[in-house]
Amino acid sequence: MKEFLRFWPGWIVLAAMLAMLWWTWPAAAQQQPQCAPTRDLERILRDRYQEFPWWIGLAGDGSALVLASRADGATWTMYVRRPDGQMACVIATGQDGRKLPDRQGKGA
Question: Do the Cβ atoms of 48 and 36 come closer than 8 Å?
Fold first, then answer.
């Protein structure tokens, strides 16, 4: 076996690929949306984080993109509510949200 490893340079590439997979696996798992019944999710956001929905956008398929935030913007959560309204999936969370100045009519 030692002779095989010594003469096969591909083992270095294989070891590097396995190491990369090992280190990136938790990050990929964390990016999966967390889903729950809409009522439960909104109750958790309200009671635990003091976040309330303040913006909603409807998609062509009937789902809704919702942005919930604390009044002071300290934390925010973006989630998608399914077309039937029964389930919602968190797609992003963050801190230090700020309202942008109104630029209506002033260009992008």
Answer: no
Is the model's pTM score more than 0.85? no
Instruction: Confirm if 46 and 69 have CB atoms less than 8 A apart.
Output: no
**How far does CA 45 lie from the centroid of its chain?**
15
84: nearest Cα among 23, 46, 38, 34: 38
CA 14 → CA 8, 9, 19, distances in Å?
A: 11, 9, 9
Assign 7 to helix, strand or coil: helix
Mean pLDDT for each 10-residue chunk of the chain (108 residues)? Answer: 50 52 50 84 95 90 92 91 93 84 66
